[in-house]
Amino acid sequence: MSESFGVKGLSHIGVIVSDIDASIAFYQDGLGFIVDQREELDRGTKLAFIHAGTCIIELIERADRKVPGAPGPVDHICLDVSGIDELVESLRARGVAFMSDKVSALSGGLAGKRNIFLTGPDGEKLEFFEG
Predict the structure, then answer these.
(1) Coil, helix or strand for 110?
(2) What span, in angstroms and rounded, lies between the C-alpha atoms of 111 and 71?
(3) What is the domain partition of the chain in residue ranges?
(4) pLDDT at 1
(5) DSSP annotation of 56
(6) Neighbouring-strand partners of residue 58
(7) d(C-alpha 115, C-alpha 130), whole Å
(8) pLDDT at 74
(9) Running along the chain, 131 residues long, what does each successive block of 10 average in pLDDT?
(10) How far apart are CA 72 and CA 41, in angstroms?
(11) The domain 7-65 belongs to what CATH superfamily?
(12) What pLDDT sits at residue 5?
C-alpha cells in the first residue's frame, strides 16, 4: 500500500443518544470528557464532539430522539483510565451502576491489566481499562 493514503488511526466513535444534554452531563461530569464542539444540523439532528485524551466520541441526537438498533452495532467503547478503583467509587457515589461488583484482574496475555464494564445513559456499553 502506498504511504500517501490509508488508515491513520481512529478518528472518533459515533454514538446515537436520546438526550444529548444528559449524555454530555454523564460523560463530562462523571468521566471528565471535554466538549469540543456542538452543532445542530438543518433537520434537527444535534451533534456534540467530546474528548478525553485521544478518545473522541461524537454524540448524535436525532430529531426524533429515537435510538434505533443498527446493522453492525458496536459492542462497547473501551476507555483507557488511571486510578480505576477511585473512578469506580466516585461514579458509584453518583448512582452509576456497573455490570459487575468489582474491578476484574485480567490474565493470560492481558495479565497486569484491570477492567470493569458499565452502561451510559442510552445503554451504550463502556469498559474502563487500566494497565
Answers:
(1) helix
(2) 33
(3) 7-65, 75-131
(4) 47
(5) E
(6) 14, 49
(7) 6
(8) 78
(9) 65 91 95 94 91 93 83 82 93 94 92 94 92 89
(10) 25
(11) 2,3-Dihydroxybiphenyl 1,2-Dioxygenase, domain 1 (3.10.180.10)
(12) 53
For residues 87 and 93, what is the distance between their CA atoms, to the nearest angstrom?
Answer: 10
Measure Cα distances from 89 to 46, 53, 119, 126 in Å. Answer: 32, 21, 15, 16
CATH number for the 75-131 domain, one of 3.40.50.150, 3.30.365.10, 3.30.70.920, 3.10.180.10?
3.10.180.10
Nearest Cα to Cα of residue 73 among 9, 123, 18, 116: 123
pLDDT of residue 101: 96
Residue 86: which H helix or E strand, with range? helix 84-93
Distance CA 111, CA 99 (A): 21
